Amino acid sequence: MMQTHATNPKILKIVTIGAPPLFVALFELARHTIFVERSPTTTGILLVFAGTLVGAFFFSRFVFGLIDRFQQESVRRSQELAVLNSVALAVSDSLNLDVVLYRALDKVLEVTGAEAGEMFLLDEQSGEMVRRAHSGVFPEAFQQKTRFRLGEGLDGKVAQSGQPVMVRDLSDDPELGGMLRERKSCSLVSVPLRSKDSTIGVVNLLSLKVGRFAADDTRLLMNMGNQIAVAVENARLHERVQSVAALEERERIAREMHDGLAQVLSYVNTKSQAVRMLCASGRAAEAEAQLIELENVAQEVYADVREAILGLRATASKGSAIVATLKEYIFRFSQMSGIRTELEVSDDNLSLPKSIELQVIRIIQEALTNARKHAKAITARVRISSKNTSLQIVIQDDGVGFNHADTRRGEWPQFGLQTMRERAESIGGNLEINSAPGKGTRVTLRVPLPAVSVSERT
Q1: pTM of the entire predicted model
Q2: Phi, psi of 228 (to 5 degrees)
Q3: Which terminus of the chain, N or C, has less C-beta within 10 A?
Q4: What is the pLDDT of residue 3?
C-alpha cells in the first residue's frame, strides 16, 4: 500500500526566497564582528570561509531535501491516480451489479495486496447492510454473519459514521478476535462506499500481516470506495430503468390483448348466447349460421395467438442482431400467414440500442399483423435503411387499404395505429401512415439514433 505525506510547495518558495538574504545578513554580521577595526587575518578569513561553506551546505541540503520530498509526493500522487484509474476502468465496463461488485473487489485486492475482501450494500427496504460479494481466502469465516443493522458490528458502525476503521491486529479486538480463530496475525480495514454524501455500502479488506494497513492509506482507500460507489449507483440505476422498461412493455402487451383478444372473446360470448337462444326456439338454420361465424372467429383468434407467440419469441432471443431476428421472424410469419413477405436492409450488421430495437420490432410486427388480419394482403415488404444518426423503416403491403379520415376511434385500424404511434414516440421517433381504399398501406417509421458505443447497445 502506498504511503502519502503532504509536502507544501509554498515552503520551498519561502525558503528559496527568504534564506539567501538572511544568510547574507548573517554573513555581514559575522564579518563585521570578526574584523572590527582590524585588518583581515588568515584565521579570520578561514573562519568566514568555513562558516560560509557550512551555511551553504546546510542550505543546499535543506532545499534539495524539500525538492526530493516534493518529487516523491508527485510520484505518489501519480501512482494513486493510476490506481484509481485502474479501479475506474474495472468497474465501469459493465452495468450488471454483480459483475461490478466482483470486478471492483478483485481490483481493490490487487492494488492493495490484501488477501481477502468482502462487500456489503445497503438494502433500502430493510435498512440493513447485506453481504453481496467475497473474494480471496477464508470464505467460510466471512459467512458467519451476512447482515448488519446500522450501528451494529464493524460494518454497521462504518456505514453509520461514514468513516473508515483500521484494526492493526484482530486478536487484540474483543469484538472481531473470534472472526479468524486460527489466524491471529491478521489486520483489517473497513471503508465506506459513499455516493452523494450518503453511505451505500462497505468494503472490508483482510491482510495476513499485522499492521498491514496504515493511517496514511485512508485517502486512497476512500477515493477507491467513492469510485466503486458511483459504479454501484450506475448499475442500480440501470436495473431500475430496465425494470421500468419491462413494466411498460407488459402494460403495452396487456393493452394490446385487451384491444384485440378481449374484444374477440366478448364477441364469442355474445354469439354463444345467441346460438343458445336460437336453438331453444328451434331456429336451427340461423343457429348454424351463427356457429359458422364462431368457427371463423375461433380460427382468427388461433392465428392471432400463434402470431403473438411468434412475436414474443422473436423479441426474447438473446445475442442475435436485429437483422437476424427479423429475418427469422419474417420467414416464420410468411409460413404462418401465407403472405409473401420480403426484408430489405442496407446494413446486415445493423446494431441498435436494446430499448430502440424492441420497439422497432414490435412496430414491424403490428404492421404485418394488420396486413394479414385486416388488409387481406398477398405480398408485403419491409425495408430498413440507416445513416449515422437516423433509421428509417418502411412496411408496405398490397392489401385493400383504408380511408384514414373515416376511421373512428376504437375501430381497426385506429387502435393498432395508436399503439404503433405510442411505441414510436417512446423512442423519439415519428410514424407516418399512407393508405387509400384499394391501394394498400405504407407505414414509415423514422427514428433518430443516439451516438452510443457498442457496449451501451448490448
Answers
A1: 0.46
A2: -65, -40
A3: C
A4: 44
pLDDT above 90: percentage of residues in the chain: 10
The span from the CA of 24 to the CA of 48, in Å, is: 12
Sign of CA dihedral 178, 180, 183, 184: negative
Q: Cα 43–46–47 angle (5° rounding)?
A: 85
Q: Is 445 exposed, middle or buried (0-12, 13-18, 19+ CB in 10 A)?
A: buried
Asked if the bond preceding 20 is cis, omega within 30° of 0, the reply is: no
CA distance 398 to 187: 77
Residue 65's pLDDT is 75
What cell does 421 get?
404511434
pLDDT in tens, 77-107: 666 666 667 666 666 666 778 888 888 888 8
d(CA 322, CA 409): 32
Residue 215 Cα distances to 86, 188, 221, angstroms: 22, 12, 10
CB 382 within 8 A of CB 343: yes
